[in-house]
Amino acid sequence: MNKSKIPSPFNPEEFRKEGHKLVDTLADYLGDALSGKEIPVLPSNDPERLAQMFSFESGGGENEPLNDFLKRVISGSNHLHHPHYIGHQVTSPLPVAVLAQFCTTLLNNGAAIYEMGPVNMALEKNVVNRFGAIIGYSGKYDGIFTHGGTAGNLTAMLAARQVKTDYNIWEEGVKDNRRPGYMISEQAHYSVGRNVKIMGLGYESTIKVPVDSHFRMRTDLLEEIKNEAEKRGIKVISVIASSCSTATGSYDDLQTIADFCEKHNLWMHVDGAHGMGVLFSDKYKGLISGIERADSVVIDFHKMLLVPALNTLVMFRDGEKSFETFAQKASYLFQKSQDNVWYNSAIRTIECTKSALGIIAYTALKYYGNSYYREYIDSRYDLARSLATIIKSDSQLELTVEPESNIVCLRFAPEGYNELILNQINSVIRAKIVMEGSFYIVQTELDGKIWIRLTIINPVTSEDDLKDLLLKIKKIGNSEIS
Ligand SMILES: Cc1ncc(COP(=O)(O)O)c(C=O)c1O
To answer: What is the pTM assigned to this prediction?
Structure first.
């Protein structure tokens, strides 16, 4: 008898059978979630209880059919495709990108070096070229993928530090009285300030610039704040702009920041993790006027470009600079003659092995990058503006600021209540709505006030969904004050 050499866990027929079942399960789930069926957006489960529910013995342990187990995983999860998911900036991914990721997961071509992910590297290159063109870079731009915007920002910030320091800081470390500093908006994502600390630079190297009434960086203060930092012994090397900010979705003024950086020979980094989707929108691209002047830009595909997390592109205006970031050599990986080549990604990233991020991003761009992205971005940004109009017309509701992106902050604020009470009420409103599972929304604090924060990221969320949410906010708010 001819005995198969394939160990049973790798049985291709079993994989086919289970794979088909899983795709059927997921397709049914996708239909239900997108239709807004009466399922809780985030099923309410205490973390300890959930850990118990998923003990190794649960569901019959190893005898539980895989599809039953995965159905339990699905039902306990936060349903990002549900039209009432209006929470954090993580997208409901495009099915084609999910299928591409399913494929790349089996191939497991971790793209640290070309030989371990040849197709990925080729597709990364093409995605980089497409973005270079739409950003408006000319010359020798380049880019690389990282796992997430936090890692992407760190990669760009390390490049800035290496390029703008007048000695080899990567090898020699930080020297007394020559501590590099990054000017960032008070509203910058926390990863930016944290990255400064990860680099071992300490809190003084994060030079915070206040924001205006629209939560945009106060560019009129840049000169003064730089001078003050330098008096404290900090060598300012970079300005980090937000396009857009996390809390309110505000876009910093890139042209003015670019002028300032050019004047003082500083590295201009743009954290466009959330807001770079406007690159595809004729209507909203003006929000990032000047982007082609940035030395580096971070773009999260898993936010406004509809790709599964994590998937981030870091673009460099001068591609050569990205090779200076990590000066160390891993000689067992890179042959000498291949040192500075684009197709060995690990030379330029924090990570060694990575997922095939380029293939997944490329798939989304290939099928939807020419028209759907534009339609998607425009409709989400338009909807945020319509919602703001409705909020402003309601005397019990308050809008933080006119939305520039698809992020809207509001609160229940009837007249006659002090800030402390309003803060408590708005926290209770958000907690109750999330707990009952009718919507998934988040909250943020700005100037000591608690705001309900919405990111209209899901392509099927409609104005009616948002009106239902406002009614719910007011219903709970009024019952709290009565
Ligand atoms: C502006 C901005 N930058 C960076 C990040 C961090 O991105 P990631 O979660 O991909 O690490 C976020 C996340 O929300 C963000 O909003």
So the answer is: 0.96
